[in-house]
Design brief:
Layout: E1 2-4, E2 6-8, H1 16-21, H2 47-72, E3 86-88, E4 107-115, E5 121-125, E6 133-138, E7 144-149, E8 158-163, E9 176-179, E10 184-192, H3 199-207, E11 210-213, H4 230-243, H5 251-257, H6 271-291, E12 297-299, E13 302-304, H7 316-325, E14 335-340, E15 354-359, E16 370-377, E17 383-384, E18 394-396, E19 410-415, E20 427-429, E21 435-442, H8 446-449, E22 459-461
Helix pairs in contact: 2-4, 2-6, 2-7
Keywords: Signal
Pfam families: DUF1214 (PF06742), DUF1254 (PF06863)
Protein name: Phosphatidylserine decarboxylase
Length: 462
């Protein structure tokens, strides 16, 4: 029997440069606030159009497998863990956190790559009480197949059995069934933390998470990713499709993609397919980035994501767009993510200007917690924190000393220099150049889910 909990995520070991050489950085990405769904339409049925569709279909599978390789196989990751063991993130992100785009300062993360090919896996969860947490089961196609957590199951200690597709045998007494869509799945744990003083308690909860399995699965053997190599891209996507049968609804798309060598039954690329991928792979990547502007519904400078985020079905456009900015997004019932890159005048948010965001009393409407994070925009579109005098990268419902207005509203001052005096408690320091805001609302109330609530615009101020 195997059992495991382990380590600290990427706090030491290989440098980012070494990791990048092995293909572990997220693809060059644009903010979700700059994506467009309509631009993903591909009308022509020729090989070039099919290759573009294959890239969009395959990118989430590839990126998921790339991170799986990093966590469980990469020789450059000294903290890699075998499948069915946890890898824990022990510290909050700051401006040094540059490996994965759009980090947050709300939760600590734990991750486990679960291999169900040798049978079900037992998950033991400690008592969380009233502290927010979630454990998402994410399949090889980046859909959330099941949840444990404050919303889904409550804060009590419990034992669960993660079962592969089609498993219908009886479970141990007292255990609850969790359904995995694919034999290889990811457990992503998010635990709310109230700053560094809360580390010890959260680390104890992380250590209380346990995975056990009666039979040891075979050693992982994913193809090492190389995002610069089109043949590597196709080979890894096809490997994922072979070891994780795709949903029945994908068969129509996969029938078309076979023409460019993508599919579980596809062998090595033919000479003509190799030539096609070699000629147009870079174009497919650039086209995806060039086309992604205005994705989702935009209101007063804020972009609201589609309702199928996190369970995409055949909406390959949304799935590809989400994969570009970051894998493993929550479903809306768990968390709503909203993005701002424009002010009330429709102009880009830039560090040379001063802004104010006035949140009405009780906003955003959530039954758990909220935060507003600020990110500098890298040349490739990725988003990271910037160092600042307060070492503050977000304002949230847990930020100490916030001063509200007489009507209960909250003014957040977003600018490079301190607003001075009693406004500094509500200051969110901005980077020098372009920046983005990301509002997170966990356990959103119906008015946020159905669109009745809208964030107010970000106002330029003198």
């Amino acid at each position: 029997m195997t059992s495991g909990t382990n380590g600290t995520i990427f706090s030491r070991g290989a440098s980012r440069r070494d990791i990048l050489r092995q293909g572990f950085a997220l693809p060059a990405a644009a903010s979700l606030a700059m994506l467009t769904k309509s631009s993903f339409a591909i009308a022509a049925d020729d090989d070039l159009a099919t290759l573009h569709l294959a890239y969009r279909y395959g990118l989430p599978l590839y990126d998921n497998a790339r991170v799986t390789y990093l966590v469980s196989q990469s020789p450059l990751n000294p903290l890699r863990v075998a499948p069915n063991f946890f890898l824990h993130g022990r510290k909050l992100a700051d401006y040094h956190s540059r490996l994965v785009t759009t980090p947050n300062t709300d939760t600590l993360y734990s991750v486990a790559i679960v291999d169900l090919t040798a049978g079900p896996v037992l998950l033991k969860v400690p008592e969380f009480g009233k502290r927010y947490y979630s454990i998402a089961l994410i399949d090889a196609f980046t859909n959330n197949s099941d949840y444990v957590g404050s919303r889904a199951t409550g804060g009590q200690a419990a034992t669960y059995v993660i079962v592969p597709p089609g498993y219908d045998k009886a479970l141990p007494d007292g255990a609850k069934r969790l359904h995995a869509n694919t034999p290889h799945t990811t457990l992503l744990v998010r635990i709310l933390i109230d700053g560094p003083d809360d580390y010890d308690d959260v680390h104890d909860l992380q250590n209380g998470l346990k995975l056990t399995q009666a039979n040891t699965p075979p050693a992982p053997s994913l193809i090492a990713p190389d995002p610069r190599d089109p043949e590597n891209f196709v080979a890894l996507v096809n490997q994922v499709l072979r070891i994780n049968p795709p949903p029945a609804a994908d068969q129509a798309a996969l029938k078309r993609l076979a023409a460019v060598g993508v599919g579980a039954e596809s062998g090595a690329l033919t000479a003509s397919q190799k030539a096609l991928w070699a000629k147009y792979f870079d174009e497919a990547q650039k086209a995806l980035l060039a086309e992604i502007h205005g994705f989702g519904a935009t209101h007063d400078g804020w972009t609201y994501l589609p309702s199928d985020v996190g369970n995409f079905g055949t909406d390959y456009a949304t799935r590809a767009a989400i994969a570009i900015t970051g894998l493993w997004v929550n479903i809306p019932a768990e968390a709503v993510y909203t993005f701002a890159g424009l002010d009330s005048k429709g102009e880009k948010l830039v560090g040379s200007k001063n802004y104010r965001l006035r949140l009405p009393a009780g906003a955003p409407p959530t039954d758990s917690f909220w935060s507003l994070s600020i990110y500098e925009v890298e040349p490739d579109g990725r988003l990271f924190f910037t160092d600042n005098p307060l070492h503050r990268y977000a304002i949230s419902d847990r930020t100490q000393g916030l001063k509200k207005n007489a009507d209960g509203s909250l003014d957040i001052f977003i600018q490079r220099a301190s607003p001075g005096g009693d406004k500094e408690s509500n200051w969110l320091p901005a980077p020098e150049g372009d920046f983005r805001l990301v509002a997170r609302a966990y356990l959103p109330r119906p008015e946020l889910l159905d669109g009745r609530f809208k964030y107010p615009s970000v106002e330029p101020v003198a």
